[in-house]
Amino acid sequence: MNPHILPSSQPVSGQAPVLELKAVSRYWGKRAAINNLNLTIKPGETVALIGPSGGGKSTLIRLLAGVLKPTQGRVLVAGKDLAKMSAAELRYHRAHSRIIEQTHLLVPQLSVHQNVVAGKLPLWPWHKVMASALWPVEKKPVHALLESLSIGEHQWRPASDLSGGQMQRVAIARALISAPTTLLADEPTASLDPATARAVTEIILNQAKERGVTLVFCTHWLDAIMHRCDRIIGLREGTLVLDAKPSEVTQDALNLLYQGSEELHEGNNERI
Ligand code: ADP
Ligand code: MG
Question: Rounded to two decimals, what is the model's pTM?
Fold first, then answer.
């Protein structure tokens, strides 16, 4: 992490914890979305998570975020089993492991500022939550963060005034304001046009690198992130069928991962 890259008033993330899955399965009915998965993600690692639809990517992301419990096995954060954490510890983990999704769920009638501040509410005592509803708090850090995402001038506009790409930047700011140690991006650019999607992808990658946070970036757009990540993980039917450095990923391995899926694309160099 290099905090000097960030404006001084921005939240700087703490040390990222190691994330581990030990023989984890997650069933929906009789079907395993994640099937006996063993995985260790190192602090600060940048991981591209790929694979055909229904392969279990979103389920894995939700397990890592601690918002979904495994049916079997253990999810460990810094060596501690999520299932054995106190309510306060689990709240802390969730507040520092932020999911950025395709649908950003902003409150359209609230200002950009209020939407960003909402990212901090889980960390605040009740009196600060009350205060934040009455008058704007954290004006400077929110502004610095929005500036770094090139939307500083929109701080006081209703979120509904913004374009899709700008709204996704607000959602990124809402995730970053709590100084997360883990960013879990679940197809965050799927609803954006290609140019905007590329810009938003760059922002997420750059912010993760600058802050030293762990990033799991789930996307079909492998070409955009492949060589910016430390590691590529491929999930198919809840099983890890690819786990390699970007330089080691072969077309054969991608063919196997996407076999029978319409999502496989020639040369893997176009957005799908
Ligand atoms: P991906 O993100 O790779 O497309 P998901 O993790 O969303 O895959 O889904 C994996 C499997 O789990 C799919 O078969 C999907 O239908 C199933 N699944 C996911 N979420 C639910 C749910 N809430 N209820 C029932 N089945 C689900
Ligand atoms: Mg998904």
Answer: 0.89
